[in-house]
Design a protein that fits this description.
Elements (H helix, E strand, L loop, with lengths): L1 H7 L7 E5 L2 E4 H22 L6 H26 L20 H19 L3 H26 L17 H13 L4 H6 L1 E2 L12 E2 L3 H17 L12 H20 L5 E2 L2 E2 H23 L6 H6 L3 H5 L7 H14 L1
Antiparallel strand pairs: 1-2, 3-4, 5-6
Length: 333
């Protein structure tokens, strides 16, 4: 019986990975940085090197882009949850808790437009590289919520009174297994600390919405990356419209399940943004084809011979890529 109780009421994982010089390093931060690192490696070595991108410019853009994303995520959270800060400095301190992915999206987008203008880089190509891997980074980042026991949905099986019996806890675990949730995730979804959430504080198992969103984000990454390798019907910029539509639909449904939404009056702000994303994504995708606006096939840029000349406008290729380009020109002559 003691074994059964231990399984049914597992202890939560430690959200702190380690400490260095007295400062805690949380798994949340590690997974965000891991997502950024994986995204950067895929973006650079999968596409940037092929297009002759300068590694110094890429590293510079990645550094300031990450800072812009974190600042945007924090400001967005504070704007829609001002009660979460107790002083002016808390606004700019993400360690005090509270980041919102929509703020990261807007912060990164603003930086990207400015950076491309300053560095004379082709914005459409850069967006087409960044958007899919950005969604992959989001998939990684959601696992930080796993360690923090946050961004979860309602109570499994909809119980409204507690404490729950062993039979009810077993039924909750079976329900989550039926949704193909692995045991290590189920164990972490046994919630005992509700941190002021406006829900009934019933100790038990809750839906892992972070897990569902992570899977959906990864599938969206594949949807953007794979088809353009085999068709010329996807154009530069379509990655952004697919991202807006895919993530808009994903977050609309996930947000309806979450217990910690940011609110604008009686409206879940993430759901409102999702609707705008979906409408904007579908409209831009369709209108570009109606008016035939800059319909440059992504295949030609990333897998053909045209990418380097477009990407490198105003920028000399790195030496290795320059030799390749010169050799191709000699061969053509």
């Amino acid at each position: 019986m003691h074994f059964l109780v231990d399984v049914l009421r597992p202890e939560p994982l430690n959200p702190i990975a380690f400490s260095i010089f007295g400062q805690e390093v949380r798994w949340y931060a590690i997974f965000i940085l891991l997502g950024v690192l994986v995204a950067a490696l895929i973006g650079y070595y999968g596409f940037g090197v092929r297009l002759g991108a300068n590694s110094d410019i890429v590293f510079e853009g990645l550094t300031f882009g990450l800072i812009s994303g974190v600042v945007g995520a924090r400001l967005y959270y504070v704007i829609f949850n001002p009660s979460s800060v107790s002083s002016f400095w808390d606004i700019f301190n993400p360690r005090s808790g509270g980041l919102a992915i929509h703020g990261a999206i807007y912060g990164t987008a603003i930086f990207l437009m400015i950076y491309c203008r300053v560095r004379k880089l082709n914005l459409l190509i850069l967006v087409e590289i960044i958007v899919p891997v950005f969604l992959l980074a989001q998939a990684f980042g959601r696992w930080g919520n796993f360690f923090n026991q946050e961004a979860f949905g309602g109570i499994v099986n909809g119980y409204t009174t507690g404490p729950l019996t062993d039979a009810q806890l077993i039924a909750q675990r079976e329900a989550l297994r039926g949704l193909l949730v692995p045991n290590f995730v189920i164990n972490q979804m046994y919630i005992t600390n509700f941190r002021g959430l406006d829900i009934l504080p019933i100790v038990g198992y809750y839906y892992p919405t972070f897990y569902f969103e992570s899977i959906a984000n990864f599938l969206g990454f594949l949807v953007m990356m794979v088809p353009r390798r085999f068709t010329r019907k996807l154009y530069l910029g379509d990655g952004l419209t697919i991202y807006l539509t895919w993530y808009g639909i994903t977050r609309f449904f996930i947000e309806g399940m979450r217990t910690d939404p940011l609110m604008l009056g009686n409206i879940r702000i993430a759901r409102l943004m999702s609707v705008l994303f979906i409408v904007g994504g579908v409209a831009i995708f369709a209108l570009r084809r109606v008016f035939k606006y800059k319909l440059i096939p992504s295949y030609d840029v990333f897998y053909g011979d045209e990418g380097a000349s477009i990407w490198l406008e105003g920028h000399p290729p790195v030496p290795k890529e320059k030799e390749k380009l010169e050799k191709k020109q000699d061969d053509n002559e």
